[in-house]
Amino acid sequence: MNTDFAKAESATQDAIALFERSLSRMVDAEKQVAESTKKAAGSVRKSANELGDTMQRLLKTADIDRLERYATVLERMATAMHALATLEIDGKLDRIVSAIR
C-alpha cells in the first residue's frame, strides 16, 4: 500500500511540474502579446496623430472655398462637353454652329 501512495505522489508531482511548465509558457506568451499590443497601439496612435496633423496643415494651406468653386466649374464644363458630344453624335452640332455664324 505504501508503494501505491508513492506512485500516486510521484504522478501528482509529475502533473504539478507539467502544469508549472505550461503555466510558465502561457505567462511568457501573455507578456509577449501584451508587449506587441502596446507597440501596435502606440504605432496606431502615432499614425493617427500624424494624419491629423497633416490634415490640419492641408486645411490651413489649401483654399477650400476656391477648390470647391473649381470643382463646380469643372462639373459644369463636363456636363457641357457631354451635351456637345451628344449633339455632335446626333449631327446637330454642325447645324447649330452654322446658324451661329
Task: Describe the model.
The chain is mostly helical and 101 residues long. It has two domains: 1-62; 63-101. The chain contains three helices and no strands. The chain has helices spanning 2-61, 64-90, 93-100. The longest helix has 60 residues, at 2-61. It is elongated and about 120 Å long. The model has no long low-confidence stretch (mean pLDDT 88).
Name the helix and strand elements from N-terminus to C-terminus, one letter apiece: HHH
Q: Quick one: biggest sheet?
A: none
Helix content: over 70%
Approximate strand percentage: under 5%
**Overall morphology:** elongated
Structural class call reads mainly alpha
Total of domains: 2
> How many helix segments?
3
Sequence stretches where pLDDT stays below 50 over 5 or more residues: none
Mean pLDDT score, rounded?
88
Taking the alpha carbons of the first and last residues, their distance comes to 122 Å
Total beta strands: 0
Alpha-carbon Rg, integer: 38 Å
Organism: Burkholderia pyrrocinia (Pseudomonas pyrrocinia)
Protein name: Chemotaxis protein
